[in-house]
């Protein structure tokens, strides 16, 4: 007697599905094994490549190779230069090695390196750097200098005319190139409607060595912008917490720098400015008037206070449109950490002391004592 046709069909279908499942499992297993082998090959090959890249280019070649690291070079730039000179095999491996080891403090300069050097030897050489005296020349930018003054300082140390330098400092194409490189520092605020010079206040006061005999104007200026970026970067998290823009920060620091004397307590000066802003009182700081006038004077006259300019803080409340000079780091710190005071006034004596007072009456008495009678 024959089996039930339905059971026979079911059995055949089941056997066919089991057979197909075995085939699928074999295919999956084969693909998995192939992937494991390929992955192992990639990992192994990658390991061997990285291991090779970490080794000297040629352990037996100690021929000196001249390598110049320009001022302001990033780790990526340094790595690329070293690869171009065959000092290392792969710039990416060198760059990530530096990050992994948390190395920093590389110095610009002219080096004699060779293909037998290890990463450790190269890094040690780059961190030792060159003494400033070995540079072709150096430029010192003091605190509290305006853009026009900085142009004059650069002109005194180079073959460029002051007008050429100022033209570059105000050239929108150059400014935009700096803006692209240092976006956290140079924001759209530098192009504010009433801003006199976009880069005013953004050239940090420091001594800059130059290792080329005749760098371009751009090569002279960029390290100053880069240094400002490095200084300001440390305070950006605090600025974000305080909801203060970088431009406002640099502007406030410039006011503190211009008002401070060597003996001045910058945190107290900072407190006066913030206290005035809090009570909707004009900042009334003389350096902004002089900036509006475009001249330097020992004393601001009452008639000077009438100058029509958005920079005149006697006529306009709040911060001026932008910085009025460059500021040192001490003033940057003061701009973020004003002392907790009730002072609304201050004045500097002839000896450089700064007298802080809470009321206009106290201020006038101090002025009569320390200024009018002198």
Automatic annotation (TrEMBL):
Top-level taxon: Bacteria
Topology with respect to the bilayer: Single-pass membrane protein
Encoding gene per record: mltG
Enzyme Commission number(s): 4.2.2.29
Cited function: Functions as a peptidoglycan terminase that cleaves nascent peptidoglycan strands endolytically to terminate their elongation.
Pfam annotation, one family: YceG
Site residues by UniProt (Important for catalytic activity): 259
Family, as annotated: Belongs to the transglycosylase MltG family.
UniProt-recorded name of the protein: Endolytic murein transglycosylase
Enzyme class: lyase
Top-level taxonomy: Bacteria, Bacillati, Bacillota, Bacilli, Bacillales
Signal peptide bounds: none
Keywords: Cell membrane, Cell wall biogenesis/degradation, Lyase, Membrane, Transmembrane, Transmembrane helix
Xref: NCBIfam families: endolytic transglycosylase MltG
Annotated compartments: Cell membrane
Keyword Cell membrane found: yes
Reactions catalysed according to its record: a peptidoglycan chain = a peptidoglycan chain with N-acetyl-1,6-anhydromuramyl-[peptide] at the reducing end + a peptidoglycan chain with N-acetylglucosamine at the non-reducing end
Transmembrane segments: 27-50
